[in-house]
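Reopening closed ticket. The problem is back. First fold of the pair:
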Amino acid sequence: MSEWLLQPAVTGVTADGTHLLRARVYYEDTDAGGVVYHANYLRFAERGRTEYLRDIGVSQSELSDAEGVYFVVRRSEIDFRLPARLDDALEIQTVIAGIKGASFLVEQSISKTGVDGYLVKVVSTIACVDRKGRPVRVPQSVKSKLDRHDGGGL
């Protein structure tokens, strides 16, 4: 049995502010050749960001219900280096690289478990908007949690 399968699920923020989420490449993530379809890396990145926020105590559903604030991806840059393939074990590392008035910068790398270097790097600007889609400041309750875990980038 693969040693990766024997390891406990890891999701959490380390002392240096890096969040780690483990994932597996499923058939649904791939194209006909068994290679992860390029747009699906954004899905892995979204899962990493969502789990990061959840692990530092930010509930996006509670934030939208209570304060009418939503997170939206304003911009993403993706650097593809190597492909992931069907059944690969992946690690998604997420760090907050900066916080501005109405947005924060998230840097993520997706790598194969046990292999040095990244497959894909994603840098996204996450904006805060109200119910009408207008920019609003990052709520102080969120900003204080992001500040405590600001990793300064990968």
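Second fold of the pair, where the issue appears:
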Amino acid sequence: MPQAFPSLGPEYEPFLYAVVCDEGNGTSLTMVSAIARTGADPWKEAARIAKLPKAAALEDLARMIPDGGGADRSAIADRLFALLPDTRANRNIPFVGSTSAVPLRNRLIPAVIVLLIALALVSIFRKTPAIDYGQQPASSAPAADKADR
């Protein structure tokens, strides 16, 4: 028999099976049940929430928590958020217009490599004076010896 809600992976289970609150009739409400009450697939919804920025995820979680029980919805949402796997790809993306949008080292590495290659090529192909080791270089010393004689 196929599952009603296929699992995406075990990394979501601590979040999905976490107790949200006591319902007052002796039962506990878990996130699976809270999400299912909204009509959404709990595993897909957990994966969606896990990808959201923290503020948006907390807002969505707080909306799923029923009123009552005397507990603070934002505190419960914060506790539940901590159980989500860290799949937020935008976690370390800086704000738009930030000077650190692209780390400087990422731009410097190719430039340094190109510079090193250019220096290596220059040192290999630079013109050096041709030296003929079979001939004695002309110097002023023998001319001075001739003058002394």
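Update: turned out to be a display glitch only; the data is intact. The CA atoms of residues 124 and 139 lie 30 Å apart. The radius of gyration is 36 Å. Please close again.
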